[in-house]
């Protein structure tokens, strides 16, 4: 799963959102580290829809513009959960390997925030 797809699914995990709302949510979730372009977002939305991970929830006209709201499907929830578990396991393995390397060289442990503002 691409990082863009992961963040789109994550942005939709709690409620349906329209395109601009998804972009804002991704920026907030990643502490500004991930900023998708509109073209990238709609390509990801099309792919996730084709894969059955999200569906169109509803369409609304606001200020003369059509807003499409998307939501996760049950398959989307499972895919997001699986990917989050995979990423967490990868982060644990990386931290363990870093610690082993630091111990082997006698270097002090590394501390600080995790990836994407601590989402890992």
Structure in words:
Helices cover 54% and strands 16% of the residues. The mean pLDDT is 90. α1 (3-11) packs across α2. It has a domain at 3-77: Orthogonal Bundle (Arc Repressor Mutant, subunit A), CATH 1.10.10. It has helices at 3-11, 19-29, 38-50, 74-105, and strands at residues 17-18, 54-62, 65-72. It is of the alpha+beta class. The longest helix is centred in the C-terminal third of the chain and has 32 residues, at 74-105. The protein has a 3-stranded antiparallel sheet. The two termini are 15 Å apart. The protein is elongated and about 65 Å long.
- Relevant CATH superfamily of the domain at 3-77: Winged helix-like DNA-binding domain superfamily/Winged helix DNA-binding domain
Considering DSSP H and I runs of 4 or more, what fraction of the residues is helical? 40-55%
Count of extended strands: 3
Mean pLDDT score, rounded? 90
Order of helices and strands: HEHHEEH
If strands are numbered along the chain, what order do they take across the biggest sheet? 1-3-2
Count up the helices.
4
Strand content: 15-25%
Which structural class should the secondary elements be placed in?
A: alpha+beta
CA distance, first residue to last residue: 15 Å
The coarse overall form would be elongated
Largest sheet: 3 strands, antiparallel
Q: Quickly give the CATH architecture of the domain at 3-77.
A: Orthogonal Bundle
Level-1 CATH class name of the domain at 3-77: Mainly Alpha
């Amino acid at each position: 799963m691409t990082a863009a797809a992961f963040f789109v699914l994550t942005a939709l995990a709690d409620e349906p959102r329209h395109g601009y709302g998804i972009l804002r949510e991704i920026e907030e979730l990643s502490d500004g580290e991930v900023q998708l372009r509109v073209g990238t977002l709609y390509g990801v939305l099309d792919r996730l829809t084709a894969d059955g991970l999200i569906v169109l929830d509803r369409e609304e006209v606001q200020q003369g513009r059509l807003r499409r709201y998307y939501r996760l499907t049950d398959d989307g929830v499972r895919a997001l959960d699986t990917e989050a578990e995979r990423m967490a396991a990868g982060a644990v393995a990386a931290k363990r390997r870093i610690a082993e390397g630091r111990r082997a060289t006698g270097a002090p442990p590394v501390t600080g925030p995790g990836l994407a503002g601590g989402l890992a």
